[in-house]
Amino acid sequence: IVRIKFVQTIFFSVILGLIYLKTDDEYSQEDIMNINGAIFVIITNLSFTNIFSVLNVFPLEIPIFLREYGSGLYGVGVYYLSKTLVEIPFLILIPVIFMSILYWMSGLVHDANSFLTATGIAVLIGNTAASFGYLVSAAVPSVTAALAIAPALMIPFLLFGGFFLNNGSTPDYLIWLKYLSWFSYGNEMLVVNQWEDVKNINCTSSTQCIPDGNSVIKNLSFDKDNFYLDLGLLFALFLGFRLISFITLYARARRSSS
């Protein structure tokens, strides 16, 4: 299974890299859509891959766990940590491998610091998505239910990630969905990391062009001053989803033993 995960990651990153292939370090107006599309693919791929990789963690063993917990063999904390800590190396290595291939092939800004920043963001996005997967896994009775519920819960977060709806157009009554969306925080950070230092975008047509990277950021209603706020809020979601998943599992264990 481990080998399959790595092979699958390399395969998809190469395929996506060939789709978005860009070998020079100059940007045209067409490249704006392509680069932002690559960023969308990075976030979406890491999110779905990591969520679905952990959905079966708790449902498959929950009857055994509840029986052994009721017998006093071990506590919820020990069980939870044993199931989640073992995944951490993969939740770090998979995004690193994915970004190491796709980042350079797709023409994201050719700068080592920007690459390391983007890779760090990708690791945090993947781990936050996995934390959400643990939450769903801890709450549902079966793997089948988890596979049915997880996509339905993810779609609203995806829709408010700044890909399908401009970041400044979110309805006030649904703003809370954007605040819970790791897609939104990750997208803004990766877009800022990509475009902030791009001083010129070539224009060969007579129509109005986007002149530089900061204009790309502005057109998406993103703000480069939000970078560290986004980073903090994304980390808060990572911790929050983990905490809620633990509380959910703890509540199920207490209820079954009462």
Euclidean distance between termini CA atoms: 38 Å
The number of distinct β-strands equals 0
SSE string: HHHHHHHHHHH
Q: Please tell me how large the radius of gyration is.
A: 20 Å
Integer tally of domains: 1
Low-confidence stretches: none
Q: What structural class do helix, strand and pairing data support?
A: mainly alpha
Helical element count?
Answer: 11
Give the helix proportion (percent range).
Answer: over 70%
Task: Tell me the major beta sheet.
Answer: none
Subcellular location: Membrane
GO molecular function: ABC-type transporter activity
Organism: Magallana gigas
Protein name: ABC-2 type transporter transmembrane domain-containing protein
Summary keywords:
258 residues, mainly alpha, ABC-2 type transporter transmembrane domain-containing protein, ABCG_transporters, transport
